[in-house]
Design the sequence.
């Protein structure tokens, strides 16, 4: 019975390690195709600032960091981090101030 429990535990650890490895590889690939440059919040496009000020979720939250991200084909979007630490949320916007999702970035919609 102890051997069975040991084999089961080792199997779980091996599976968790494989999952972590895949996650790290995906992150490296994503970072290598994006040019991510930190910018000052005041340097965000006016359309993005307007969207931030119009949104109930973000209008009263301080911006802690902002990034201009350029895809492989030169398409630009912006990542904005509101708040700090556990309270922080990250939102992404295109140059016209439209909210975009990580799925849209991941499916390379922004790289065309």
Sequence:
């Amino acid at each position: 019975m102890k051997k069975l429990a040991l084999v089961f535990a080792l199997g779980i650890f091996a599976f968790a390690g494989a999952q972590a490895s895949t996650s790290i590889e995906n992150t490296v690939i994503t970072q290598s195709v994006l040019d991510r440059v930190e910018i000052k919040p005041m340097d965000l496009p006016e359309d993005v600032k307007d969207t931030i000020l119009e949104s109930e979720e973000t209008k009263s939250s301080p911006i802690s960091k902002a990034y201009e991200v350029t895809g492989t084909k030169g398409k630009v979007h912006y990542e904005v981090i509101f708040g700090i630490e556990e309270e922080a949320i990250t939102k992404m916007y295109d140059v016209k101030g439209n909210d975009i999702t990580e799925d849209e970035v991941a499916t390379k919609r922004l790289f065309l």
